[in-house]
Specification:
5-stranded antiparallel β-sheet, 1 helix
């Protein structure tokens, strides 16, 4: 037995966060984490994303999602790449070569409620949209990017979505 050093009263302690799925629908969110991981089978790779909900309700809740970028199943890879395309357009990026470029992106995500025997009910990100509701122009319609000016010594360049 080990003493806690003080008395803890349940009524005085903060309540934990709810893990119930959010209602299906559109939410504004910020991408707060993006990493590349290998699939469990080791035969593919995916981008693991963490979204923090910023509104219109459920602020502070967190949603996780994955986008296949390499998969032995061509259909799974195609769907994942289409989703990445939608996500990039929603946050205003024409080109991505590092997951850090996604972090901080503000967008709308469409959530659905899913259910599985292993995990029960949860949310799945089904679609992406820009905050203003407009889509980024097709890549062929976009002007060629000029080389940005180097930031001043010690200054950090603004992320692409902040420009």
């Amino acid at each position: 037995m080990a003493t806690l050093g003080q008395d803890y009263v349940a009524a005085d302690l903060p309540m934990g966060k709810s893990f119930e799925p959010l209602p299906a629908g559109w939410y504004t969110a910020a991408i707060t984490q993006a990493t590349v991981k290998d699939t469990k089978a080791g035969t593919g790779r995916y981008i693991s994303l963490k979204y923090d909900i910023t509104g219109p309700s459920h602020q502070g809740r967190t949603i996780f999602g994955n986008l296949n970028i390499s998969n032995p199943n061509p259909k799974a890879e195609e769907i994942g790449r289409q989703q990445l395309n939608s996500l990039m357009r929603a946050i205003g990026l024409a080109k991505v070569n590092d997951t850090d470029q996604l972090i901080g992106g503000q967008l709308k995500i469409k959530l659905a409620i899913t259910s599985s025997d292993q995990y029960g009910e949860g949310n799945e990100v089904k679609d992406f949209a820009g905050i203003a509701g407009g889509a980024m122009p097709a890549a062929s319609a976009m002007p060629a990017a000029s080389k940005p000016a180097a930031p001043a010594a010690g200054a950090k360049a603004a992320p692409p979505w902040a420009k």
